């Protein structure tokens, strides 16, 4: 098995990405809508969208609240261009950053809402905890974080995919960098990680098959 670098994986799949997500990923016709329902209908709120891709969640969020201001961070330039094409009437509300959200400085107490949709199931606990610390810091005092993602149904399931990822990387001589391979975590582990960085409450809002929506409040 070969592993593809994350930015290359998504840059080369931009034209078929939305069709793939909506037609071949269980629950995609539901979870973007359910995620958007959690966005307050408040004028001009600031949203941080991590791994925003082509903006499938933003399509639904703009339907609910067309006034939101969005900072989107994604590795794929091609996908960010797709957002601009789809929402050319919202360019003044969009600040799209080509970068890894692990590297990007999110700032302090800026955002009302942070969210990530189907993007964090590729990373280790340690990487996620470091990212969650940044997210927590970037939120206003009453802010909250939404994570909509593929999550492992059991600890054994999680352990297997992390073990396979290590095995494949070792065989290929990969020692660092972000590569496209699914390593989902259990809801329990996700919840513990979010509590660990300071979120007061973490609630499972919705689930369909292995896709779960978590709501973490500061």
UniProtKB/TrEMBL annotation:
It catalyses: phosphoethanolamine + S-adenosyl-L-methionine = N-methylethanolamine phosphate + S-adenosyl-L-homocysteine + H(+). Pfam families: Methyltransf_25. The keyword Transferase applies. It comes from the Bacteria. One of its GO terms (molecular function) is phosphoethanolamine N-methyltransferase activity. Keywords: Methyltransferase, Transferase. This is tRNA (Cmo5U34)-methyltransferase. One of its GO terms (biological process) is methylation. Pathway: Lipid metabolism; Phospholipid metabolism. Residues 47-143 form the Methyltransferase domain. The keyword Membrane does not apply.
